[in-house]
Amino acid sequence: MDSISPKAVFGPSNPSPIERVESKVKRFASVIGLCSEKEAYYRELHANVWPSILEHIKLANLQNFSIHLTKIEGKKYLFSYYEYTGTHYEEDMKLMGTKPEMQRWWEETSPCQFLLPNTKTGQQWQEMEMLFRQD
Fold first, then answer.
1. Directed axis angle between helix 89-97 and helix 100-109, to 10°?
2. Spatial contact of 104 and 49, defined as CB atoms under 8 Å apart
3. CATH number of the structural domain 25-127
4. Is residue 1 predicted with pLDDT exceeding 60?
5. Tens of pLDDT along 98-128?
6. Distance (Å, rounded) from C-alpha 94 to C-alpha 102?
7. What's the distance, Cα to Cα, between the start and end of the chain in Å?
8. Sign of CA dihedral 93, 99, 100, 105
């Protein structure tokens, strides 16, 4: 969030950071740009995801993983959502990133994307703040 944005407000439909940490299911949403000229290839990759990638996602304790596409002011953007059900998120993500097939997958998908301003160093997708949740 930038410095001119209002502060987060927590309540029954938007759990506090402490409540999120204590939750058994942790939800993650992020966004990145999609290069229009690479859209067809990106769609093809995801229509035929390599079985090893699906297995790595599952072994990293990720579920309900989805990627959505929208167009805003002539540019295309990808929105991803997933739920994490493990107990050591950073370790699971690091382990998944060491897998040669996952690295190969990212070598294919990363050139299809463009980073958004203010994306943290070392990250590809920009994390999004949760404002509302209803289970």
1. 80
2. no
3. 3.30.70.100
4. no
5. 999 999 999 999 999 999 998 988 889 999 9
6. 11
7. 25
8. negative
The tokens for 74 are 């002539």
- What the block records as the tokens of 86 is 């493990």
Domain edges within the chain? 25-127
Q: What is the band of 3 on the pLDDT scale with cuts at 50, 70, 90? A: low
> What is the value of pTM for the model shown?
0.87
Backbone angles phi, psi at 60, to 5 degrees: -85, 10
Q: How remote is the C-alpha of 42 from its chain's centroid?
A: 16
C-alpha to C-alpha distance for 22 and 12, rounded to whole angstroms: 15
> How far is 129 from 11, CA to CA, in rounded Å?
15
Distance CA 8, CA 58 (A): 32
Task: Please give the Cα distance from 109 to 20 (Å, whole number).
Answer: 30
| 47 vs 37: CA distance, rounded Å | 17
